[in-house]
Write a structure and sequence with these properties.
Cytochrome p450, 6-stranded mixed β-sheet, 20 helices
């Protein structure tokens, strides 16, 4: 059965050529009429409009404000890669999101972004991450072992805890800080919910300010910053070097030899926690649900991991042996890309697919729709990990962007993929996973999240103590 989750079919007019005539528009009134369903889940509305209006259409959200939606692969590649210098992130990230999580590499632009990306990038190099892989696996095993057996549980909160603790352990290698991390996780989730309301109900921003709701959430952000500042200060005062990501960031230097200021380091840490744990938790939850829905794929994965020693010293060698496990994750991220839309604003006038767009045009690039286009993918709604076999996957490089694309591609993509491969491989080695449902609730927030993910886990070796 397909994983369409109730969205309208993509067959029909979805392949309209954007050059064939004027770009169609959705009126502000239609947006207002559909405000409740857009607030709940905008993806079915997006699908309807793509099918009806073509691969690129315009949504008017004010008398002079419009957003251009596209799932056209050439346009997306141009904006993210070939002509990326003419596009910047929108105020949704550089202003609205930044007020909660600070001005780090996720929310900054221009020279400021380039300077800090250059500083942070070495910490996520494959060679640097290799030293953290054993620590990563131990954190994964600690979070997954002892899961309830033979009863239905929602796996998403477990995956969220797992991903958060992996980031925490990788940043702060040793220490008893679970209480602090739990509070940081609560703040991250509360502030994201507030930002989503601001984003989907821009006409109520005046009320959010007047009622004090924004002020309350800004206070939560201050708490998060104080919490992280205390952990950093404790590390600095100890004089210890633990070889974790915090050590690498403390040792990073600008071109003139200066270290990163404390407030900037805190901004980067908050962003690593926010982006680093959430997207991974989402992808993991979708992946295990899809494996539960497709037992034949799960059993093929099990044959790959059945006799593997995950606890061996060379964790990188373990990861390299899990080729089919990675294919399953790649296919899950095709169907449910955690970053399901990317927004950009043009800096100067440009002609795209024969149509002129003025400077200041806001673009929304739908990776969710791109990854499910019947013009690009065979049987696009089906879960087929085999399409990502090494000899086949190169064919998709022009329209498969699970971690984004271009210079702003996710800095932690290797970190996240290693984590997901280890987590899914170990889980399937130890448990047979089933689900009582064939429909999964989708909750598109800043990232594409699942609702409840009901699974039943059965130990593959009864009596085994994990």
């Amino acid at each position: 059965m397909s994983e369409k989750q109730g969205e309208p079919s993509e067959q029909g007019t979805g392949g309209k050529n954007p050059k064939s005539g004027p770009i169609q528009q959705v009126s502000q009134w239609e947006v207002i009429q559909n405000r409740r369903r857009i607030l709940s889940n905008p993806l079915p509305f997006h699908r309807e409009k793509f099918d009806a209006l073509g691969n690129t259409f315009i949504v008017r959200i004010g008398p002079r404000k419009r957003i251009v939606f596209t799932r056209e692969p050439d346009t997306i590649r141009s904006i993210l890669q070939k002509n990326h210098r003419n596009y910047a992130k929108s105020e949704l990230q550089t202003r609205d999101l930044a007020k909660y999580i600070g001005h780090g590499i996720l929310t900054s632009e221009g020279d400021f972004w380039r300077k800090h990306r250059k500083m942070i990038q070495p910490a996520f190099h494959k060679d640097q991450l290799r030293g953290l892989l054993g620590l990563m696996f131990r954190a994964i095993r600690e979070e997954l072992q002892g899961l309830p057996e033979n009863e239905v549980l929602d796996i998403f909160p477990r995956m969220s805890d797992l991903a958060f603790q992996v980031v925490a352990q990788s940043l702060f290698r040793a220490g008893d800080f679970r209480k602090d991390m739990n509070r940081l996780q609560e703040i991250t989730e509360e502030n994201q919910k507030m930002l989503i309301r601001e984003m989907r109900q821009p006409y109520l921003k005046w009320w959010f300010k007047l009622s004090g709701r924004i002020g309350y959430h800004l206070g939560l952000s201050t708490q998060a910053r104080e919490l992280l500042d205390g952990l950093i200060e404790e590390r600095v005062q100890s004089g210890l070097h633990r070889g974790d990501l915090l050590d690498m960031l403390l040792g990073a230097r600008y071109d003139d030899g200066r270290p990163m200021p404390r407030h900037q380091l805190i901004d980067e840490l908050i962003i690593l926690f926010t982006a680093g744990h959430e997207t991974t938790a989402n992808a993991l939850s979708f992946a295990v649900f899809l494996l539960a829905r497709h037992p034949e794929k799960q059993e093929r994965l099990y044959t790959e991991v059945r006799d593997l020693d995950f606890g061996q010293e060379d964790t990188l060698q373990v990861i390299r042996s899990l080729g089919y496990t990675q294919q399953c994750i790649e296919e899950a991220m095709r169907l449910f890309p955690p970053v399901y839309v990317i927004d950009r604003v043009s800096l100067s006038e440009e002609v795209v697919n024969g149509h002129p767009f003025p400077a200041g045009t806001t673009w929304l690039l739908s990776l969710y729709e791109l990854h499910r286009s019947p013009n690009l993918w065979e049987d696009p709604e089906a879960f087929i990990p085999e399409r990502f076999e090494p000899q086949k996957k190169k064919a998709y490089t022009g329209f498969y962007f699970p971690f984004g694309a271009g210079p702003r591609m996710c800095i932690g993509n290797n970190f996240a993929m290693n984590e997901m491969v280890l987590a899914v491989g170990w889980l399937v080695q130890n448990y047979r996973i089933t689900t009582p449902t064939d429909v999964l609730e989708i909750n598109p927030l800043i990232s594409l999240k699942p609702g409840k993910v009901p699974l039943r886990l059965e130990l593959r070796e009864p009596g085994l103590s994990l």
